[in-house]
Amino acid sequence: MFKICQVAVLIHNDLSLNSLKTNSSDENVFKFNQISLCSGKKCPSTQNFSINTNNSINYQVYNAEIQSVLIGKATLDFNTSDHSKVNSCHITITQPRRVIDIIFDIMIYTFGFTISLLMGVLLDKKCILNIFKIPRAMFIGFFCQYLLMPLLAFTICNVFGLTPVESLALFIYGCSPGGAGSNNWTILFGGDLDLSAVLTFVSVLSSLFMMPLWVYTLGSVFSTKAHIRIPIIGLFGNLMITIVPCIVGLILSIRYPKIKKFALKVAKPFTLCVLLTFLILAFITKFYSFQLLKLRHWFSGPLIPWFGYFIGGITAWILRLPFNQVKTVAIETGIQNIGVAFLIVYTNLPTPEADFAALPIMAVAFLTNIPLYIALLIIRICKCFSQDLDETDFQQEKSETGPENDPMIEKNKS
């Protein structure tokens, strides 16, 4: 829960509390309770304020009590009885820092490192060489990932009228490399697993160049409006957390081939465990942020991966890739590394701007895979119906044939 806070304010002696009206500019951020004369050892002196020391005797220090409601920025306005503004105090409400928040921050780095390491271990040297010999599918996937997706994210941010800081974060997500979960979905849909692994690996390596390219060109439209500048060193540092483990994993798989069998066994349950733990911890630690989610966040964010599935699949189909590779390109285009986007936002943006920026990305985290679940359910239902129809047809053929026409019976009679 947010706490009741005391704000020390300096009021001229000519102004009486009866003639002074104090209120919050946004009661969704904080509410004003009361104001009283400050007393006690903790009370600051007038010399602590930026005023002329000669005039300090004409002022007195008061305590304004406010009740914080949600994270955000608002002003505490002081007006006279005739509604003329005397002054205002800018107040920022941030989320309280707890032990679980520190654990969540550590787990973001740990999970990102481990998943990237698994991603590298699962790569097969021979498969990589085969894909590079026929690079058409790889180039199509790269085209969808790093050209179509950033443009799609930029369009959606403008169509839904997101704030500049929200648009910047969502655009960063649209420029992110492929996610590790795409490999599992490729297996479930019968796609090309080798192509999936290579596309993920190539997109991770390419992010070191492609993400800064987009963020500091088209992304500058949003960062300029938000008055936020993401440092290039910080961005490279965030990306290296993903790239370095992936390369280390590839080296380990080449040096110790048996490690890949173990990685195949633990990859799927570990990824699922990581995802569930991340979502649960995100809900607990960012509970205050969830209360800020609006319909525009739930609609705008998830549309990027949802349209990504469609655009990636259509592009691969038009360019005449085999159907299993069409499915792979669609999945790889839609599923992006949301952890990279969260990492960049929370390590480079000040608070509470980072919490506001992450709102549409939170919606993405919860709804990215909804179309895949629906498609998988439809496929399973269709397979069940087709099996039932095949069994029915078999039974009908058997009943039409009849026992009198059974060749085994005729043979026994003879």
Can you walk me through this structure?
The protein is an alpha+beta fold and 414 residues long. Helices cover 63% and strands 12% of the residues. The chain is built from 17 helices and six strands. A three-stranded antiparallel beta sheet has the order 1-4-3, with no helix packed on it. A three-stranded antiparallel beta sheet has the order 2-5-6, with no helix packed on it. α4 packs antiparallel against α7 and α5 packs antiparallel against α6. The protein is elongated and about 95 Å long. The N and C termini lie far apart (90 Å). The mean pLDDT is 81.
Helix content: 55-70%
Radius of gyration: 30 Å
In round numbers, the mean pLDDT is: 81
Strand order of the largest sheet: 1-4-3
Weakly predicted, low-confidence segments: none
Please write the string of helix (H) and strand (E) elements. EEEEEEHHHHHHHHHHHHHHHHH
In total, the number of strands is: 6
Q: Profile the largest sheet.
A: 3 strands, antiparallel
What coarse outline follows from CA principal-axis ratios?
elongated
List the quaternary state of the chains. single chain
